[in-house]
Design goal:
Length: about 260
């Protein structure tokens, strides 16, 4: 299974992965019946999670039911426990909407919820995060996870997200982080194999590092680093598989002044 999923994610275009993923989850679910792991997003219990990863899949990551990964499960708990996302009347813009969240967020009566992506078949709007064709001060919340490592002009993306946020609004901008290094990039590197080696994936243009919170601060956000991941016991974290190394801290990126 590990090799199959690694091959699929590396070869099949993202649009088709999105279209076929729910059918895949229905077909694979009976093979993962058990109670060793638990997904807080869908409430499912399984003998283990599915392997996942581009090219080189890692064991015990992907929920067989809702297709959540570690970062999705941690973010779900964060939104539930640390924010009023599920109760307050909020206008939300969600870039690259993740499938574990899409229907669940759309069904929340308190949200005015819009999704956006360059090419996703499940998004409401086709938008470039570096050129968001929407009015200033439009949204209470912007969610844009695991997108910015793909964007050439990341500072322009930060500026655009700040622009469409209302004063007092906040954004969740999760990225893959290597906690052993500072952020680095090299625009001259275009070979997929070199990008895989240096940046962690064939289509990444940078590797974010331990200075990510400072980068967000320099971009103009007021950053609140939340380490509530550590409120859970090691047993609970392992059972829910809440975060990979470097993803334990969630940065709430607030717009405090105009």
């Amino acid at each position: 299974m590990k090799r199959i999923i690694g091959f699929i994610t590396n070869v099949i275009p993202r649009q088709w992965l999105i279209r076929c993923s729910y059918l895949f989850s229905i077909l694979i679910r009976p093979f993962y019946v058990g109670n060793r792991v638990e997904c807080p997003v869908c409430g499912g219990h399984f003998r283990k999670f599915l392997p996942y990863g581009y090219g080189n899949a890692t064991e015990n990551r992907l929920c067989p039911k809702c297709l959540s990964l570690e970062r999705h499960r941690l973010l779900w708990l964060y939104l539930k426990q640390r924010t009023d996302f599920f109760t307050a009347p909020l206008k939300v813009l969600h870039f690259a909407p993740e499938q574990p969240f899409l229907k669940r967020f759309r069904n929340l009566k308190n949200l005015d919820y819009t999704t956006a992506d360059l090419d996703s078949p499940i998004a409401d709007l086709h938008l470039d995060v570096t050129k968001i064709n929407l009015p200033d001060h439009s949204y209470d919340v912007v969610i844009c996870n695991h997108v910015l490592e793909h964007v050439d002009n990341v500072n322009q993306a930060f500026a655009e997200i700040l622009r469409v946020l209302k004063v007092g609004g906040w954004a969740i901008l999760m990225v893959p982080i290597n906690p052993d290094v500072d952020t680095f990039e090299d625009p001259s590197i275009t070979d997929p194999k070199e990008r895989q080696r240096l940046f962690g994936q064939y289509d990444h243009v940078r590797q974010f590092g331990k200075d990510y919170a400072q980068i967000l601060t320099n971009a103009g956000f007021h950053v609140v680093e939340d380490k509530f991941f550590y409120d859970y016991s090691e047993e609970q974290r392992n059972r829910m598989r809440l975060a990979r190394r470097g993803e334990e801290v969630i940065c709430r990126c607030e717009k405090v002044i105009e």
